[in-house]
Amino acid sequence: MSVTPLAKCHSPTVPLVPPVHPLPTPNGVYHTTLESDVFECVRGLVTQGLWIIVSDRVSIFLCVSPGVQATFSQQPQDLVVVAGQPVTLPCSIPGYHGVVLWIKDGLALGVGRDLSGYPRYTVIGDHSTGEHHLRIQRVELMDDAVFECQAIQAAMRSRPARLTVLVPPEDPVISGGPVVSLRAGDPLNLTCHADNAKPAASIIWIRNGEVLNGAMYSKTLLRDGRRESTVSTLYLSASNIETGQQIICRASNKAVPNGKETSVNIDIQHLPLVNLSVEPQPILEGNLVKFHCSAKANPPVTLYRWAKGGNVIKEFSGDTYEVIVDHSFFTEPVSCEVTNPLGSTNISRNVDVYFGPRMAAEPQSLQVDLGSDAVFNCAWTGNPSLTIVWMKRGSGVVLSNENILTLKAVRQEDAGKYVCRAVVPRVGAGEKEVSLTVNGPPTISSTQTHQALHGEKGEIKCFIRSTPPPDRIAWSWKETVLESGTSGRYTVETVSTEEGVISTLTMSNIVPADFQTIYNCTAWNSFGSDTEIIRLKEQGGSQKGNVLSSTETLPVAVIIGVAVGALVAFIVLMGTIGAFCCTRSQRNLKGVVSAKNDIRVEIVHKDHNAARENEEHTAMKQLMVSVSFYLCPLYAY
């Protein structure tokens, strides 16, 4: 805190009062350091000079006239006041016309009658007669302090006056009031709290005009360090209470000597006793079911509330609920909640609903590496108990009857569609299909020979199936390798489709050497690679080649025709014999079991004509297998 003297009032013979409180006492000596000089003030030697009073709020610079004599006719006295009431602190100095300061806890409130920093504070009285009373409107807890009235020019101060502010407790509150209900035979615990009082409130319990003893009492000092909250707990055994009794909690302190009170009424009751029935059971979904909720309660029932699976059914509020049930009633219970003034009782029941399979955990399609395990999980619910069957689409073989299907060390031929089927006997069935994709090396398919015209543009294609997709596709011929883009007369373009990837090698201005070149299409992924060799053939080749092709094709067609005719005649003959044999052996026939083996034919295309011969050979082989399938059981028997 710094002080700057007024130059016009300063002289070597005028001492300074230090910027501290209280003011100098008679014959008192004070020292203060100002601009590196030490000044001494002796009250008895003052003839004129500068008095300086400084506080955190006010800095006052005054020139003092010598020889001022005054005395207090009224001084503030210690007072006790209740918060919210007004109060006046008197201060009268007859014959004094100088500045009067009011000091609160050592800090000046303002200069003279200017107390603008304290809206509730006002200096009242006739200034000309020396009246400087401090009026406080609506006393608050912050006004609890020590006040002084000081006459500056007369170097006087009043006796310190303590203003004590009392705060009545808030209205007491009994937890659970105004009616406390309890079950017969239970003890009673009542808690009453009276908060924010100064001093702390005292609490007593009263029943039938008599004070109840034995209550526990505690108080807590609040953060402001002045007010306190009080809590009292009363315990009464079951034998010491009766229904209809009134118990009063009265809280008092010096601010409210007569106290404030609240009360509770004791009501000994019982919760509703509830029974919930469901008719008929069991029942097929889609039919009507009736729920009946019967209850006994004291006091009487005031409310019925129905819910299903925790969700309130607002359309029904009586003791009966009718509804057409579905599968959800099997897993989501219907509950009836009965309420009376004491509380609620809730009871719930499931319905034994028969329903067809419903999926609880949907299986997911899988993509696994070659040689890894594939695990499908499929869960159904149904009532009565259901049966689960796992099969591969197109196959009648049952792979599992459990929720989980595990395929060990999968191969590429295991890829395909799998079906999880659930059956509830006499109720219904359901199924879910998933896919298995097996990661492995790519496979390339293409026509081994493409045709083009000399001097024109030509193109050859290869189709790549690959899981995962190919990392790289390259065309190579002679000493050239091209993956994409253009190199001379050659351009490579790659297009992705849902089925796979198509890579096209385009050649412009076909020359004779192009028909003699072997083109290689190769694809790679993280599991391996595959290669296909493709040739380019000149479109409209030599007549000799055409004749040769026809000559080579004709014998094969003739052979197929003759073979088919012979087989038809053979089938008719064997059918006649078979019918005769079956008639003779019908009595001894217990059952016929036939099996058809899967036949896998792998054709590697290396030559166009050879490919055609292989296709014709495959067709003939499949036809012979079909005939054998139908005839062999007869001879086997």
UniProtKB/TrEMBL annotation:
Coiled-coil spans in chain: none
UniProtKB keywords: Cell membrane, Disulfide bond, Glycoprotein, Immunoglobulin domain, Membrane, Repeat, Signal, Transmembrane, Transmembrane helix
Taxonomy, superkingdom: Eukaryota
Keyword flag Cytoplasm: no
Xref: Gene3D superfamilies: Immunoglobulins
GO BP annotation list: cell-cell adhesion; synapse assembly
Molecular function terms, GO-annotated: cell adhesion molecule binding
Alphabetized InterPro entries for the sequence: CD80_C2-set, Cell_adhesion_signaling, Ig-like_dom, Ig-like_dom_sf, Ig-like_fold, Ig_I-set, Ig_sub, Ig_sub2
Domain called Ig-like: residue spans: 66-164, 169-265, 272-352, 357-437, 442-537
Subcellular location: Cell membrane
Membrane spanning residue stretches: 556-580
Family the entry assigns: Belongs to the immunoglobulin superfamily.
Designated name of the protein: Kirre like nephrin family adhesion molecule 3
